[in-house]
Amino acid sequence: MNYKILYPEAFPVVSVDLRRGEALKAESDAMIAMSATVDVEGKQEGSFLGGLARRVLTGESFFMQRLVARRGDGNVLLAHALPGGILDVELDGSYGLIVEKGGFLAAEESISVDTHVQGIAKGFLSGEGFFLVKLTGRGKAFVSSYGVIHPINLADGEEVIIDNGHLVAWPDYMEYKIEKASSGWLSSITSGECLVCRFRGPGVVLIQTRNPEAFKGWIQSMIPPSN
Fold it and tell me: Quick check: 178 pLDDT over 90?
């Protein structure tokens, strides 16, 4: 698949060149323009229950877009709603990629998009919920963020502590745990961090430089209370 990520520093767009008969899957509102040779259709990913789980449990769309170049070669432009980065990820089939809610943008048809179940403690404490998105297979996928995507590459045994509101994606073979930001609960709460995620390498954790929930809170603070 031939593609380019345009305007990567501000409001990125993925430009994908499709050969005749080639197809791409994407989130339901990702397409912003396409050649007249390309058709877009709603496609249920996996089983009915799988699609329902994606919608109800992860907040992702029940249907995905399938963009196929039916009448000749064509081009598709893709983007996402938030001002932030888009990163291409190459999956080799040896592991899955766990993506936070809203982080999946598009992928080659060879990539499966499914639901990943977290444990009760992680789902409740991490702020990400009990169900995330899991990408598996061989091929190219695109993940999106609020702010720029920054990779943190951990060596074997190396650890990093990440604010859970900044998580984008990580390999399914990486383990992490939820813990207090400071040694005590009072200090953790007053620091503004409270709970954080401790990841242990080897592996690469993708983070976003802005926190959507923090931005949401700032917007709400600017709205005057209704009488």
Answer: no
